[in-house]
Design goal:
With 119 residues, this protein is mainly α. It is built from 4 helices and no strands. The radius of gyration is 15 Å and the shape is elongated. The two termini are 18 Å apart. The relative contact order is 0.17.
Length: 119
């Protein structure tokens, strides 16, 4: 279980770095989308740390991570549709978000299994 939660945090860090590198030349009229993408990525990191340190309601934080990744996916899809990012970048963003989702869901399953074993 410990390995998964740290992987989630590392994947989120990688996503933040990738966002910073690849959203530099954003059109001025779409700056709100860029700011929203950046803010959500930092919120993901905060939620992952909260889930990591709390003893209760870990599932709540992990569910929020999953929901935020889906919102982030929507915003990046919007950027792709508006031709702000190209297909190569969109695919790379998708891969990074898929990693976050996959490990978050695994983390959640691990927590649920541990709770069943304790009961």
């Amino acid at each position: 279980m410990k390995e998964e939660k740290f992987k989630v945090i590392n994947f989120i860090r990688e996503l933040i770095i990738y966002i910073d590198k690849n959203l530099e030349n954003f059109p001025r009229k779409e700056i709100e989308i860029k700011n929203r993408i950046r803010n959500i990525s930092y919120e993901l990191l905060e939620l992952a740390y909260m889930a990591n340190i709390t003893k209760y309601d870990k599932n709540k934080y992990i569910e929020e991570i999953i929901a935020k990744v889906k919102v982030l996916d929507f915003l990046l899809n919007l950027c792709y549709d508006k031709q702000i990012i190209n297909s190569k970048r969109y695919v790379k963003f998708g891969e990074k978000m898929d990693d976050i989702l996959k490990y978050s869901i695994g983390w959640q399953k691990s927590i649920n299994e541990n709770e069943k074993n304790r009961a």
